[in-house]
Structures are given as C-alpha cells and as structure tokens.
C-alpha cells in the first residue's frame, strides 16, 4: 500500500495537543478526519512529535498509508488542505515514501525553537506565540549556561513528572541562544528525541540565568541533582515550535 510523508505546520493555540484524544480538538484528529473525508479510509496520521497543548509546528512530519492507489502525494496534500480549512493546520509538502518509513521511529533528529519576547510592554500580536519576559535577559550568561547541557546527560531534572520515557538519558546536540531583533530571542535545540517538557524546562531554567537570579554554573548543579524540583519553572507552551525532523538518506 502506498505510504506518504507529510510536512505540516500548525498554530497550536486552538488544540489540546497533537495526539488524538476522546475529548477535545487535536491536530491528529483533524488530519485523520480530512483523510477519511476524501478517501473513505479510517487510517492513522502518525506524527514524528507528539506536541503538547498550545505548542506550534513549522516542520512537523507525519505519515499516512492508504489502500487506494489512485491518490498521489500532491492530490493528498491538496485534498487535506481543502478539507481541513479554516483550521490553522496546513500540509506544506507531501511525497511518497517506502513502506518502511515511519515518521516517529525513523527520525534521527528533531529540532525545536523557543521564542521569547523580551520587553516591558505586553504584546498585542504574539499572545500564545512567544513567552513575554519583562526583565532584560543577558544572553551571554544564558549561552554559557546552555553549553553545560549540550552532550549526553541524565536529564531527570528537566523532565516532567508525567514523562513516560524509560530513561532520562538523552544526547543534546545543540542548544544555542540568538537575539533575532532588539526584543526577540530564539533558543534552538537539536536532539534525536526529547523528554516530556524537556525543552520548556530548560528554557525556564535558562531564563533564571538570564535575569541574573542564577549563575551559569548553577545549571551544572541542577543537571547533577537529577530532581525536577532543582530546575527552573516550565516555560509556557506558546513559545515552543517543532521546526524540523530529519531522517536517514535512504528515506
């Protein structure tokens, strides 16, 4: 049966997350209903990242497999986009892939970006799209602290208490802070996979360094503590974006 890889972007604000739920709107629900409406097939749209309530994506990847061979990738993309409108969910790319491809399990890297609006005045345009931090953030200190988290570590201090991962050990390949403009700050992280709330807990911890409440050295102590209570607060979901998912060349 033909299998298709979909690249998807969405505004996470109206949804309780990616994953299908019995109650409440999810991105997966809307996509699967759109597929059913044009194909008549009840199939899973399997995503690479199960983003939480309010988290956005510019590069989520999913796959769908259909029994009917009359649909090609472009027809599927156009049909989903037409049927899912006006929901803020869009398939931006589609291609046919091997049946061995799996959006989640074939992935070798995920990249997240966290957006901070750093100014005293509140926002009229970025509510739910960035974290509004009033206190000035010192990026050099944040960057120094971030590098203490790069590499292979036990990230127990940065996982949620509800995290179901068997191990807290992860390899963080990149964690960098950039000033995009006078008031806009981006934090970029790359890893094969992330723990539940790992990125948001890291951002909340780095923010404490940025406002001068903690030193960059403190982050090493937090990591070594292996206790969630040792780290900073969980940053709001609205600032987080899944920006890309990478796969081996054969896919």
Descriptive key words:
29% strand; 5 helices; Alpha-Beta Plaits; alpha+beta; globular; 251 residues; single chain
Could you describe the 3D structure shown?
InterPro entries: PsdUridine_synth_cat_dom_sf (IPR020103), PsdUridine_synth_TruA (IPR001406), PsdUridine_synth_TruA_a/b_dom (IPR020097), PsdUridine_synth_TruA_C (IPR020095), TruA/RsuA/RluB/E/F_N (IPR020094). Residues 9-105, 145-248 form the Pseudouridine synthase I TruA alpha/beta domain. It comes from Candidatus Endolissoclinum faulkneri L5. Formation of pseudouridine at positions 38, 39 and 40 in the anticodon stem and loop of transfer RNAs. Homodimer. This protein is an alpha+beta fold. The chain has two domains: 3-97, Alpha-Beta Plaits; 109-246, Alpha-Beta Plaits. Helices cover 23% and strands 29% of the residues. The protein has five helices and ten strands. It has helices at residues 27-39, 73-84, 139-147, 198-210, 216-225, and strands spanning 3-10, 46-47, 56-65, 89-97, 109-118, 131-133, 151-154, 169-179, 184-191, 240-246. Strands 1, 2, 3, 4, 5, 6, 7, 8, 9 and 10 form a ten-stranded mixed sheet that branches. A hairpin with an 8-residue loop joins β2 (46-47) and β3. α1 packs across α2 (73-84), α3 (139-147) packs across α4 (198-210) and α3 (139-147) packs parallel to α5. The longest helix is centred in the N-terminal third of the chain and has 13 residues, at 27-39. It is globular. The relative contact order is 0.19. The mean pLDDT is 95.
């Amino acid at each position: 049966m033909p299998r298709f890889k979909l690249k998807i972007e969405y505004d996470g604000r109206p949804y309780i997350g990616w994953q299908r739920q019995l109650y409440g709107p999810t991105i997966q629900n809307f996509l699967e209903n759109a597929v059913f409406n044009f194909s008549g097939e009840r199939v899973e749209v399997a995503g690479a990242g199960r983003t939480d309530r309010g988290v956005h994506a510019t590069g989520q990847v999913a796959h769908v497999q259909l029994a009917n061979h009359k649909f090609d990738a472009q027809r599927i993309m156009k049909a989903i986009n037409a049927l899912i409108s006006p929901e803020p969910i869009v398939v931006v790319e589609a291609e046919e892939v091997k049946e061995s491809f799996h959006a989640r399990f074939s992935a070798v890297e995920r990249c997240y970006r966290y957006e901070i609006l750093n100014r005293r005045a509140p926002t009229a345009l970025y509510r739910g799209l960035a974290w509004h931090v009033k206190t000035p953030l010192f990026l050099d200190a944040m960057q120094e602290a971030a590098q203490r988290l790069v590499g292979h570590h036990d990230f127990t201090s940065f996982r949620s208490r509800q995290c179901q991962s068997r191990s807290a050990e992860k390899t963080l390949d990149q964690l960098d802070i950039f000033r995009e403009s006078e008031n806009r700050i981006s934090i970029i992280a790359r890893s094969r996979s992330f723990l539940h709330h790992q990125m948001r807990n890291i951002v909340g911890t780095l923010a404490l360094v940025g406002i001068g409440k903690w030193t960059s050295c403190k982050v090493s102590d937090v990591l070594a503590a292996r206790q969630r209570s040792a780290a900073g607060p969980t940053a709001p979901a609205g600032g987080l974006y899944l920006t890309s998912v990478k796969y081996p060349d054969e896919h």
